[in-house]
Amino acid sequence: xxxxxxxxxxxxxxxxxxxxxxxxxxxxxxxxxxxxxxxxxxxxxxxxxxxxxxxxxxxxxxxxxxxxxxxxxxxxxxxxxxxxxxxxxxxxxxxxxxxxxxxxxxxxxxxxxxxxxxxxxxxxxxxxxxxxxxxxxxxxxxxxxxxxxxxxxxxxxxxxxxxxxxxxxxxxxxxxxxxxxxxxxxxxxxxxxxxxxxxxxxxxxxxxxxxxxxxxxxxxxxxxxxxxxxxxxxxxxxxxxxxxxxxxxxxxxxxxx
Length: 257
Description:
Number of domains: 1
Number of helices: 10
Radius of gyration: 17 Å
Distance between the termini: 13 Å
CATH architecture: Alpha-Beta Barrel
Number of strands: 8
Strand content: 15-25%
CATH class: Alpha Beta
Helix content: 40-55%
Strand order of the largest sheet: 1-2-3-4-5-6-7-8
CATH topology: TIM Barrel
């Protein structure tokens, strides 16, 4: 079995065809999916999905790319996370690739999420792009390791992965791992401990080979597991079993159904 640890099935590309999404998950032995929040305005629809489907969980948070949206407070995040289907805080973090200029607001938002995660003791889902040093620095300064979490859609170096693991975090690989130019990332997947790995789709984005260019779906996450298995020289089932166990260890509020 496999678990998609990060997807956005509430986004328009997938929300209108959820029966097909769930059928494909079942056909590909994908037992559960974590639907990730990117802004508070759309959190209610994510929570509703998790309430309606026993194999879907929710997170609550505001993506670092979103400037014109409600700015969360620690108290608000903690209150919204106090729900049995909400298993994580995020997606949060830093992104210096898409946005430029004075990004102190982004760093402060990241700190808010870490403080909320520590307060409610639910793990963080961290997005970092072109900002590894500041991401790790703030994680250390805010003691993010006391909440734990995952570095989602990981594309950084082995050194960054090892630093995050040292802080108690997991590393999640997406369909990017299957891309032709992802040689360095495959080296990371071959090197880090299997017990610190998760797999994800980030659907509807980043469809893995052989579906690249299509709308991504949680049912495609098995291709990420297949690539990890290939680079590590082990069976796909072993990767599925390990990453599923890791998911439920990390997201302790989730219970296999």
